[in-house]
Amino acid sequence: MAGMSPSERLQKELMSLIKEPPPGVSVDSNIAEQNLLHWIINMEGAAGTLYEGEHFQLQFKFSKKYPFDSPEVTFVGTNIPVHPHVYSNGHICLSILTDDWSPALSVQSVCLSIVSMLSSCKEKQRPPDNAFYVKTCHKNPKKTKWWYHDDSV
Fold first, then answer.
1. Rounded distance, CA 96 to CA 99, Å?
2. Does pTM surpass 0.85?
């Protein structure tokens, strides 16, 4: 996908996600086609996990610098997953969304990483600092200085 403009890259990713979505993931193509820089992704909790049967929505906001700039990704809607890396305002603490972002990543790979993160959860609980974070954080989670550690939660 080298040499593509951001809109060409997003259009290609959108078509790929519509035609061959990962299991449990679908894009609201009506919203994405109206504004290529704003997508809503519908996600189902994977079978055999704590989130089986649950439905979630992810909002992706892209800058004009995508894919060199990571998308802003948050859970939205009425069902924000209760997870040690997901705040009650929908912000997600996941390194590939900020520090470990690479232009080689895609919407599909981000969705698969989030499905994997949810699927590996052993106990539904909010991050320990949820109440403080939600009161004091910036609206854009990319402006948060996250501390990452591999706790295999």
1. 6
2. yes
